[in-house]
Structure prediction request, 200 residues.
Amino acid sequence: MARSSDPLQRLTVLLKKLPGVGPKSAQRLALFVLRAPRDYVGQLAEALETVRDKVRLCACCCDVTEDELCALCADARRDRSTICVVEQPTDVRVLEKTGEYSGTYHVLHGALSPLDVVKPSDLKIAELLARVRQGGVKEVILAMNANTEGDVTATYLAQELAGLDVAVTRIATGMPAGGELEYADPVTLARALGNRRQTE
Prediction:
């Protein structure tokens, strides 16, 4: 695909590839960058390069970090007998805001989706199973989004974990059908964590 000779148009096309950014939003963002102070644009460009070059996945939980282990996995005070499985790195931050959970996390980086052809091998499921097989884990909490993809993922994980001598629970009341963790308030999430149930 040939590059546009119009810098503003090229920026708009690139911004449009971001999740949730449509053509009009991309155009507004491109115009904002055009009018922004030069030092801000420089900082933005540097931040983008730094994220791409320095941020990687935690060797344990697959969250994003600059170090081999993320801050939570490196924290000796966390309860390593419990793993809370979430879809995205943003879900970890949201759950941490509740102050109700002191265990560790595992980030899948997505959810199973037959329509979008997202398979188990596309997610960090093998890494989760390897962690559980290492021993010491008593409970795996499935904190999937309350939608079709989240339900499919939770069901698949429960089946995969069934023979590994570990309790498998899923966050329950408090999360509305179709709701996403990223947009839930701390009180709702705290209630969901507190009322998690055994998977069937």
Notes: The helical segments are 7-16, 23-35, 38-54, 71-74, 89-96, 125-133, 148-161, 186-194. The mean pLDDT is 89. The CA atoms of residues 95 and 101 lie 8 Å apart.
